[in-house]
Amino acid sequence: MDNQPFILVIDDEPDNFDVIETLLFHEGYHLNYAASGQRAMERLEIFQPDVILLDVMMPDLDGIEVCRRIKANSQWQHIPIIMVTALTAKEDLAKCLAAGADDFISKPVNGLELRARVNSMLRIKHQHDQLQALLQLREDMVNMILHDMRNPLTSILLATEILKLPDFPTLRQQNKIEQIVSCVQQLQSLIDHLLLMAKLESGKMVLNLSETDLCGLCRSVLANFEAIASQKHLELIIQLPQPHISINLDPAIFRRVLDNLVSNAIKFSPQNSQVVLRVNDWDAGGAIIQIADLGPGISEDLKQCIFEKYEVGKLIPEVSQLGLGLAFCKMAVEAHGGKITVENNQPQGAVFTVLLPESRG
């Protein structure tokens, strides 16, 4: 991918563009030329440069008016503008800054100064782009969290309204109460994920490591999902090399990792299929945990980003797929010094593999 910055040079004299091009030749920039202010405005409709070098003294539409129009447009106002001028009076330079110019350079243009000022403006543009990406990420995150919260909240409200009906059968009240409890647990799990990830990212999460029976932990996790799996007629299978494996980890955090992976496997598995949780020895002295399903699998493109925060997989439209669970798994596993990957299962589905290099006791 070409990440070289684009610079738009606006000047009515082609010779001046040749000078700029010569001075910036070894910097690796893409230079575009506009011979008038009007041509520049037309060019901005097609592409947005990273920096604009704008001559002040131009016929018809002078540089100050061009600068004012660019900065008045919300789509263009973030582009840094360096005014190139032969004017030296403070009043003239003040007009440039009042029009919205970010910097200026005097003619005749000095190559060292030009490169320094362009690099300075590119840093500002890069910081702006990073901030915009962060704001967009936050907006996407809020939208996805609200989307994932809306479903359980809607179910809670509906179940509550049904319970308020005077002729609602008593025998079905318990089912509605259980539905409400389940939805509240979903909301609590989402909030817990957000809080734990925030702590892990900030370095404030301290793992409470202790010698833990990994096999017993895996058996306990599957036992908790038996009821959910039976509703989809899924068979949960556990494969262990021996009854007990003692490994140093934070049992509460790592259990949440296993819960996420098993929950995802069940969520995406077709009815009357299997979910397999297996543990094997690892040559590095730790253990390998794998959770395999026979679901739709994961595309190659999605494998590259599925562990990123707030990444949503387009696998099954009706299934909630907020990218928090797998992002948490990655952070938690890496906090233990391990690694998590995903590969294709055979004949179909996905296999998530967790490598724990902790030495066994």
Verbal overview:
Helix 5 runs antiparallel to helix 6, helix 6 crosses helix 10 and helix 8 runs antiparallel to helix 10. It contains 10 helices and 12 strands. It is elongated and about 85 Å long. Strand 11 and strand 12 form a beta hairpin. About 3% of the residues have low confidence. Helix content is 49%, strand content 18%. The strands form 3 sheets. It has a 5-stranded parallel beta sheet with strand order 2-1-3-4-5, sandwiched between helices. It has a 5-stranded mixed beta sheet with strand order 7-9-10-12-11. Strands 6-8 form a two-stranded antiparallel ribbon. It has 3 domains: 104 residues, Rossmann fold (3-Layer(aba) Sandwich); 64 residues, Helix Hairpins, CATH 1.10.287.130; 147 residues, Heat Shock Protein 90. The chain has 361 residues and is of the alpha/beta class. The longest helix has 53 residues.
List keywords for this structure.
single chain, about 350 residues, Heat Shock Protein 90, five-stranded parallel beta sheet, Helix Hairpins, Rossmann fold, alpha/beta, 3 domains, five-stranded mixed beta sheet
Give a brief description.
The chain is α/β, with parallel strands linked by helices and 361 residues long.
